[in-house]
Each structure stands twice: as structure tokens, then as C-alpha cells.
Design a protein that fits this description.
single chain, about 150 residues, 5 strands, disordered C terminus
């Protein structure tokens, strides 16, 4: 028999993965003639009222840390990582797109295009993760098995 805490942990994991994949993580600014866009792992919405689906591998370095933050959040909920380490990883995961974009602002091609996409983070996942961390800061969702006799 599975413990109730394990069901809650699975539910939080599924909701977290849906938030990672479906909510926007950044606002892409194009300094050249191209359109600006709002980026998510599975979709991209341009200024030109164009919605592109399944853009998963295009901006991989910008969102990979969102999955690392998910890993640390789940380990925190299981009691295997400290609250401080989980908060640091969640904040760093939101700063990565901005940190990668800094060279893109500084260096432009001769045509006026930026070499690296410029992203400004949208902290939806940060707020969600911090809320979960503070709600469960005194509880561990262990995966112990209940004996039913």
C-alpha cells in the first residue's frame, strides 16, 4: 500500500512538470528586424500573432535549469536537500536566461543582429517553487509504506 504522502508528492511532481513545460519562462527580445516573443518549453508566441508549438530543442540552454530546480524541489520535499540549497537552486534557475543573455546585449553582428538570444525571465516557476518550499518547510513528504493489517 502506498502512503498518502507519496500521492501528494506525485501530484506535486506532475503539476510542477506541467508548469515547467506550459508556462512562459522568458521574454525574448530581438534587437534586429525580427519579432519579440514569449517563450515556453513547448511553445513560443511572437508579436506577429504567431503561435509556434514544440520548440523544445531550440532554446535548451535557457530552460534546462528549470528541470534541475524541479529535481531540487522534489528532493527538498522528500527531506534530502536543505531549504537553503533548494531556494538557491530555484533562484539560480530563473537567473540563467538573463545571465546567458548578457553577452548577447554586448556583442552584435555587423548586420545589427544579436548573436545570442536576449531573454528576460518570467518568474512564474520561481513563485510556485518558493510557495511550495515555504508551505512544506517543516514537513517531509517521505515515501514510507503503510502496513494495513
Amino acid at each position: 500500500m502506498i502512503a498518502k504522502n507519496q500521492y501528494l508528492l506525485i501530484l506535486i511532481g506532475i503539476i510542477s512538470l506541467m508548469i515547467i513545460c506550459l508556462t512562459p519562462y522568458g521574454f525574448h527580445i530581438d534587437l534586429g528586424p525580427g519579432p519579440n516573443s514569449i517563450m515556453a518549453v513547448l511553445w513560443e508566441y511572437w508579436d506577429l500573432d504567431v503561435l509556434r508549438w514544440f520548440t523544445v530543442l531550440e532554446y535548451f540552454p535557457y530552460y534546462i535549469f528549470r528541470f534541475i530546480a524541479f529535481f531540487y524541489l522534489m528532493r527538498f520535499l522528500m527531506g534530502k536537500v536543505t531549504k537553503k540549497k533548494a531556494i538557491i537552486m530555484v533562484i539560480v534557475s530563473e537567473l540563467i536566461p538573463l545571465l546567458i543573455s548578457i553577452p548577447g546585449v554586448l556583442y552584435l553582428s555587423p548586420d545589427g543582429e544579436n548573436y545570442i538570444p536576449i531573454m528576460i525571465s518570467i518568474p512564474i516557476l520561481l513563485l510556485y517553487n518558493l510557495i511550495l518550499i515555504f508551505i512544506f518547510s517543516n514537513k517531509k513528504l517521505t515515501t514510507t509504506i503503510l502496513n494495513s493489517s
